[in-house]
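Entry for the shared binder. Reason: the reviewer on the internal report wants the predicted structure included alongside the sequence.
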Amino acid sequence: MPENKISFFNIVIDNLSMSETLAKIDEFVASDKHKIVVTPNVDHLVKLQTDKVFLSAYQSANLVLTDGVPLLWAAKIMGTPIKEKVSGSDLFPKLCERAALKNYSLFFLGGLEGVAEKAAQKLKEDYPDLNVTGVYSPPFGFEDKALENEKILKLINMHKPDILCVGLGAPKQEKWIYKHRDQLKVKVSLGIGASFDFVAGNVQRAPIWMQNNGLEWFYRTMQEPKRMLKRYFIDAVFFIPLIVKYWFKNKRSRDSLSSHY
């Protein structure tokens, strides 16, 4: 396997730091082909075990990062340590700062009505040279409506952004990018989850100390208990057995390799 890539559960992770990630995206913007960036967290990894379309979207991605301290813990347990957490919510503002410095253009897709626009305004206050060429909040259920998708694709391609930031939540955002990957005339597409809400101030992120100690899920649950408690409970129930499953799988692979030599 190439350097800086590791087998992790049923996907391949790019083991990069935040600075290395930004440098890699610079390379993507300079290329002629559409590149896709995804940031798996615990919830993604659980869904990836059974959702074949979601898995295909991940397998088609050009950069797979690590969103969440629990993934760092799991990687260490399995003997494949990961350098750094590079979540979509951390990457998004840093990428906007980079875009302002390097004159990359961006398009924001997702969020409730007005949220992505508010996020764009706040980012421009921080980075006056930021070029957000367009913003669009699609209606609920748009992904199954051909005419609406045609409209969105036409809008994005008309603005010709270097980078498309999609905040629709997982797995919707990854599946949408994957489905339309050949129709999007952009250099980079990036799934960013709730980042528009965080930047706009609609949802408060956990304090840094909680983020760094794997407690962001707890903070989010306190904010939205009805929605998040079920999700994180399901994640916990399935994630721990998955760690055990893939630890034994990796161990068998290592033992087999050792016996071969």
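Summary line for the report: The first helix runs from residue 18 to 30.
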